[in-house]
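Query form — protein Dephospho-CoA kinase

QUESTION: What is the three-dimensional structure of this chain?
INPUT:
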Amino acid sequence: MTMVIGLTGGIGSGKTTVAERFGRYNIDIIDADIVAREVVEPGTPGLEAIVEKLGTDILLTDGTLDRSKLRQAIFDDNSLKDWLNALLHPMIREQMKADIAQATSPYCLLVIPLMVENNLQAMTHRLLVVDVDEEVQIARTRQRDKVDASHVQKILAAQASRQERLDAADDVINNNGDSNELDDAVSELHQQYLAMSLHYQ
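ANSWER: The structure tokens for Dephospho-CoA kinase are given below.
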């Protein structure tokens, strides 16, 4: 059995950057956002169910899901969001479990943005939280997504609070600093996880 490290953090905290740093040590990374796209690729039961409910208008000309149209449909009809979550969340969870079972590195990273909100740390052995000050989150997200501060505040309000994530964490990387500090923090945790992973092999 592979040891599973859950990786989460609020928007703009640098989860992807941290995951990439672990990837440099050849650690298998299972990213919920990527899995979420895979379960609605052409030919999947997920996409077939969406087309059955919303019609072929929800597809782009190449047969893939029109995500912006789907987002609009959810925005217009809130019950659709619940239906979609009920359809896709079990599929995403099963696919993540299958990916974990196929992991070959001493431990693997399971990257889930809303891990604490959806109580998915039950799928992990340890939870690593990437933590940054709120003003850093806002600045980074504004720069990355070209949105105003009030838009970022709304997203923050919909996520678990910083304290809720920290309360759930086994390990914390503070990502307010520069890339050298981040490299050092990841290197240190990598060594700890390698030592811990021996108990799971």
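ADDITIONAL NOTE: The chain has a mean pLDDT of 93.
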